[in-house]
Amino acid sequence: MRALLILLAFAFAPFPAAAQVAPTPDITTITRNLAAIWRPLPTAPSGPPDQIFATACTGAVEEMERLIAALPADAGPTTVTGMRTTAGLLFIPAAAPGQIYVFPSPALAPMAGGLGVFTVSDAAQGRLDLTDSSGGAFALQLGRAGGRSMLRILWPERPAQTFVGCASSLD
To answer: What DSSP assignment string belongs to 106-124?
Structure first.
């Protein structure tokens, strides 16, 4: 029981530098780490961490496959703007380093879908700055907890939101 409480503390508390594996400043590595479908974790989780992660990821792979299948043949910055997931967030790498296609759910408004750009703001803390297709700026934190990839959106005016990486969008 104590191990479960410690694991949950890492999974749902702010990511201190010592409790995470921060991405390297290498843009290729960071792109690979971001390229996934991410699902939100509950704010008041109950149950074993593996069960919490599995519940959060239910249907994520199928949703990612549907969205990718719906991409137009001439997919590009203007043709994918406005496409959204139903839950969470999907990142698909673009051709240029530091560019990534962003497909947020409606719950993540004001984040806009389409071609985004990210930069490393603090590699030691796993912090990234994402600029979405409409020019909105978002602070992200990428790390690991409980053996899973984790992502946090550090909203300026609401509590941080934690996501679990459910499946890579590179496979």
So the answer is: GGGTTPPPEEEEEEEEEGG
Better-predicted residue by pLDDT, 130 or 157: 130
Task: Give which of 2, 3, 22 is closest to 152, Cα–Cα.
Answer: 22
Tokens for 148, please give them: 């899973």
| Nearest CA-CA partner of 129 in 157, 98, 159, 97 | 98
Residue 107 tokens read as 């719950």
Continuous segment of H or E residues that includes residue 7: helix 2-12
Residue 67: closest CA among 94, 85, 89, 80: 85
**Which residues, including other chains, have CB under 8 Å from residue 108's CB and lie 6 or more apart?**
89, 153
* Alpha carbon distance 102, 41 (integer Å): 19
Phi, psi (degrees; rounded to nearest 5) at 57: -90, 0
Q: pLDDT by residue (tens digit) across 53-94?
A: 999 999 999 999 998 888 888 777 777 877 889 999 999 999
Q: Specify the DSSP element, H or E, that contains 103.
A: strand 99-104
Q: What is the pTM of this model?
A: 0.81
Q: Report the candidate in 50, 23, 45 with the shortest Cα–Cα distance to residue 36.
A: 23
